[in-house]
Amino acid sequence: MKRILFVDDDASVLDALRNLLRKRRSEWDMVFAVGGHAALAELDKAATERAAFDVVVTDMRMPGMDGAELLKRVRDDFPGTARIVLSGHAERDAVVRALPVTHQFLNKPCDAVTLRSVVERTCNLQTLLQNEATRSVIGKLDRLPSPPATYLRLTEAMADPKVTSRSIAAIVEEDPAMTVKILQLVNSAYFGLAHAATSVGQAVTYLGLEVLRALTLSAHVFSTAEGTRICRAELDAIQRSSLATATIAKRMIKNRELANDAFTAGIIHDVGRIVIALALPEKHGEISECAAASSKPECSVEQDVLGVTHAEVGAYLLGVWGLPFSIVETTAFHHAPSGAANETPEVLAAVHLASAVVHAGAGGEPELDRAFLERVGLASEIDSWRAAAADYFARLGGAAPTRRAVNG
To answer: What is the span of the domain harbouring residue 273?
Structure first.
C-alpha cells in the first residue's frame, strides 16, 4: 500500500478529506496531521519505523509553519517523498514561493477525482525508479540549471516593460530547464486547464507576463549553472543538441499542433542527463569515463552503473512535476520507443529519429527502432524525415551539434 500524509491546520478539513477518500482505504495507508509540526512528527515516526510516506499533501496557508516551509523540510529530510500543495487562486505569490519545493499544485478546494488522479499518478511514476537511493537524490532537486547566457537574456528581457509574450517564449523554448519549469507550473491542477499545455507559447500566454516576471526574478526557480557541479560547456552541449533534436523533430511532422508538441518534447527529452550530472556527479563521471573507454551505448553504461538510464530518470522527474503524459512518455522511450503505449506515436517517432540523427551526426547512420516505426505505420517516412534532418545540418554548415561532451 502507498502511504499518504495529508496536512492541514483545520481538523474539520482533514475529517472531510478522510470521508472523501474513504474508498481508497484498501489501496492507501492514509495519515492526517493537524499542522506542520505534527506532520514532521509523523514523518520522523514513519522513518523510525521504516514505513516512509510516498506522498505528502499539504495546505499552503497554515499558522506557525506554512506549506512551503513544511515541504522544504520534507525535501531536505525525506527527499524520496513526493510533495503536493493545496492553494487558493488568491495565493499566486505563495505559489511562486512554494514552486522550488513542490512537485504538484492543486487548487483549493479540490474535488475527489482530481485529488485521487494526481496522487495515483505520482505513486505510479515512482515505479520508474525502483532504486530508492537514486530517487531520494533526485528528490532533493528543486530546479535545473540553465546556461548563463540564456538566463541573462531572459532576465534582461523581463526587465523591459515593453517585452511581449512571444519574445519571452522564444527565449524559454530554447532551454530545457526553463521549459520544464514553465510547463510544470501551468500544467498543475492549480491552474485547472481543460487541456494540457504542451508548448511554451501556450504556457507563457496562459501564465501571463506578471507571473513569469516573478518566476524569472526568483533565484529559487530559474538559475544558472553557477554554484552547481555541472560544467558550463556540458550544459551548453546539452542545450545545443536538445535544440537541434527539437528543431528537426518539428520539421518532420506536418500537423502544426503535433509539430509544436514534438518541438517541446525534443527540447526536454534529455533532461535526465542534466539531472544525473547535477544530482549524481560522481556516478556521472564514472559513466562518462566508461562510455569513453568502451564502445557500449551510454544507456547501457548508465544501466550498469545506476540501474536506470537518463531516459527513465528524466521521465520520472517530469512525471512527478506534472508535465503532460505525452511528453513524459516520449522522454522515457525516446531511445526504445517499442516499449511505449504509443499515445502520440508521431511525436515519439519524430523525437526518436531526430535524437538518433543528432547523435550520429551529419552523414552518420542513426540507430533506429525500425520495428516500432513499422508497427505504427511510419517506416515509410524515414527517408523524408532524414532529408529534413540533412537540410537542418546543411543550414548549420554541415556540422551536427555534437553530444560527445556529454556522452550522448
So the answer is: 232-406
Per-residue pLDDT 10s for the chain (408 aa) are 889 999 999 999 999 999 989 888 898 999 999 999 999 999 999 999 888 899 999 999 899 899 989 999 998 899 888 899 988 755 666 776 777 788 888 888 788 888 888 888 777 776 666 667 677 777 777 677 777 677 778 878 887 888 888 888 888 888 888 888 888 878 876 676 777 888 888 888 888 877 777 666 554 456 655 555 566 677 778 888 888 898 889 888 888 888 888 988 998 899 888 888 888 888 888 998 898 888 788 888 998 988 888 998 888 888 877 788 788 889 989 998 988 766 678 899 999 999 988 887 656 677 889 999 898 888 888 888 878 777 777 776 655 555 443 333
User: Quick one: cell of 250?
Assistant: 518539428
What CATH number is attached to the domain comprising 402? Answer: 1.10.3210.10
Q: Pick from 371, 328, 374: which is nearest to 347 by CA? A: 328
Whether the Cβ atoms of residue 139 and residue 126 lie closer than 8 Å to each other:
no
* Residues 394, 324 within the same domain: yes
Which of 175, 182, 246 is CA-nearest to residue 216?
182
pTM of the model: 0.69
Q: Please, what's the b/e burial string for 358-376 (b: 16 or more CB within 10 A of its CB; e: otherwise)?
A: bbebbeeebebbeebbeeb
Do 317 and 399 reside in the same domain of the chain? yes
Please tell me whether residues 356 and 277 are part of one structural domain.
yes
Strands (E), 117-187: 145-146
